[in-house]
């Protein structure tokens, strides 16, 4: 891990390409940089030597004649490498490349970018960018971005400048801002993992937000994010996750079923990262995590001042994974004694007009439900915040009630999300001032509590890749099954033979005949099952020889599939995240039902069992409709074995067992395939 101290806390800064032209980054960055002159020297470098923003400039870095820690380069691409040389000669150990025109333009630009990044790295310096928006550290008064950004506890890593600007507005609306911001740009040198590690060690950063389009080394990202989460700093990720499966030549079920989004979700689960879908959703969750941390939120009390809002909010809460369970009798009795006879008190709570008569009933009700050990969180919905429109006296009482509500929430330490149709009111502002989450839309309030609940329920575990095993040279079924068998996965007894009848007589009938050298044997008609005697076996063999021109065959004992459940287990090597495990319902319906789940490989048997239990088909494993339950321990152990073997062979692009037969007495591989990298 390289030190990023001079990137965030430099002793001196130079803007190379400072300009008076208000349409250029050299101007925008200079304007912000001059805000920190009381903290550190700021040198403006302009090749013409003309004053910029009323300040004297230097024609070159050499003219400064003082050490410079950090240089921001805004010159055109043609002059970028020369600017880097000048910066390194001046002693810079951190360079921020605002300049665009590199890898984003194609191979020639990429080659130039790689060359200059190598030069910077060889000099012992670091490069942020190029093609980035800049860097910010409000705890060290470092302002080197094009726009002023709000201060706060959030560390942001973003590959998009516009996303950062939009998120800054959402955070400011929630009373938050940035401790640090680094614009990744093209990630020629520093990548998201480097920045996240630096943020995890930064005392001023409490929550980390990241927008990434390309993770570079995905395993490094997962490791860094996992370290941050373990250090008590949640990581919230917004990324592009549309599937590219349609553009990939999928040569196995595993490849066809695995999308970029599924891989990213698996990576997030491993690291304990919270994934969101929009900048607004990111701001909501970041604010909630800052307020509540990892507090439980699953069991929610819904409080409304109207039946329609109560019912609608309950449905929306349920859709977001929250449990709106009936209150215990003692709580029902306490609420009933305090509220009007027409009030609903079982969960959801409908105050039924109590707000107009006694606005403080909101605070008392919230206090009571928060006091109950069966309640993790509260969702308030409706008109609170609007009662002040009925007159100044009620307005004053409503603001006072908002203060009391905030006191109850902070005292109990449980999450509360308040939706109000009057979100611009004085009472709503009072709640925000005290750190309460106020939402204009009930969907956002419920979704945020649901995300908090998911966050608290996570048990992250970042897998370590095993040492690479001796490489596999062949990809046919026989070599696949022998590789897996050597690793501990059971298969039916089999022979690789040219004399198939002799092999069958050694094994015993019935048998399965499989033609070797075919990736999709069944599709090509290269598998014959239930062959009960020499005649049927010979006939099947002769037919395959005539149609397929295959000389080598596997004769395998026919497994008894009665009472078993067919699963698919595959490992695919992702370009960014390495080996990814897929587990799902197997057999002929695999790609139709798509009942699958994913994890970064390898997994432990315990993690494999958790994956199996999350399948929609899990009741089949547990013994649905009178069936005997399968040996789940043996099945999980088999899944973990496949994941370990796939992870230990970087030359294998895809490894798949389909079906893996789970039975009450154990687990058996019935077919397997390998796709080698580049094949």
From TrEMBL:
Q: Which UniProt keywords apply?
A: ATP-binding, Nucleotide-binding
Q: Does the keyword Cell division apply?
A: no
Q: Which residues form the ATP-grasp domain?
A: 481-529
Domain of life where this protein originates = Bacteria
Q: InterPro entries from the entry?
A: ATP-grasp (IPR011761), ATP_grasp_subdomain_1 (IPR013815), CoA-bd (IPR003781), Ligase_CoA_dom (IPR043938), NAD(P)-bd_dom_sf (IPR036291), Succ_CoA_lig_flav_dom (IPR032875), Succinyl-CoA_synth-like (IPR016102)
Q: Name one Pfam family in it.
A: ATP-grasp_5
* Keyword Transcription belongs to the record: no
Molecular functions per Gene Ontology: acetate-CoA ligase (ADP-forming) activity; ATP binding; metal ion binding
List, alphabetically, the PANTHER family matched.
COA BINDING DOMAIN CONTAINING PROTEIN (PTHR42793), PEPTIDYL-LYSINE N-ACETYLTRANSFERASE PATZ (PTHR42793:SF1)
Protein's name in the database = Acyl-CoA synthetase (NDP forming)
Q: What is the originating organism of this protein?
A: Kutzneria kofuensis
